[in-house]
Amino acid sequence: MIFEQINGYIQSFFYYIFIALLIAYLFLSRKSQERKKALVFFFWGIIFFLVMIAAVLTVAYGLPSYLPTVFFVLLAGTSLTLYRERFFPFKFKCRKCGAKLKSNEIMLEKDYLCADCSNDEGSEE
Ligand SMILES: [Zn+2]
To answer: CA 102 to CA 36: how far, in whole Å?
Structure first.
């Protein structure tokens, strides 16, 4: 019963998550200095899209209702463990001094350096 409910959520919400991730991808691919970070959203978009398709097919063919959930967990789990660099390359702390980074430094800039450290590096060059 619970999985049927989850499938319902998947079918009604994953489409919007998919669209939101694609928009984030398009936005970041213009803004971010690193294409890799934009692609993260694209890859996650694909995962959500595939799971949504799986939920639709499960209902259409009367397959066991836990399949889409299992599929999602497997897909997200293997992506994060085997392809961590691709699916979650973000670092939240400065590479040099360990200070907490601001969201735009995480998402848009290249080297995971805080403002102070990237100024230092800029003046060394
Ligand atoms: Zn720093």
So the answer is: 18
Distance 16 CA to ligand 1 centre (A): 36
CA of 32 to the centre of ligand 1 (A): 19
Domain boundaries, the chain: 2-89, 91-125
| Euclidean distance between CA atoms 56 and 60, whole angstroms | 6
For 19-50, how does the pLDDT look when each residue is reduced to its tens digit (9 = 90+)?
A: 999 999 999 999 988 888 999 999 999 999 99
Give the dihedral sign, CA 115/118/120/123.
Answer: negative
| AA letter at 55 | A
Ligand 1 mean position, distance from CA 113 (Å): 5
DSSP string, 1-42: -HHHHHHHHHHHHHHHHHHHHHHHHHHHHHH-S-HHHHHHHH
Mean pLDDT, range 52-57, rounded to an integer: 96
Kindly report the backbone phi and psi dihedral angles of residue 90, in degrees, each rounded to the nearest multiple of 5, phi listed first: -70, 140
**124 CA distance to ligand 1 centroid (A)?**
15
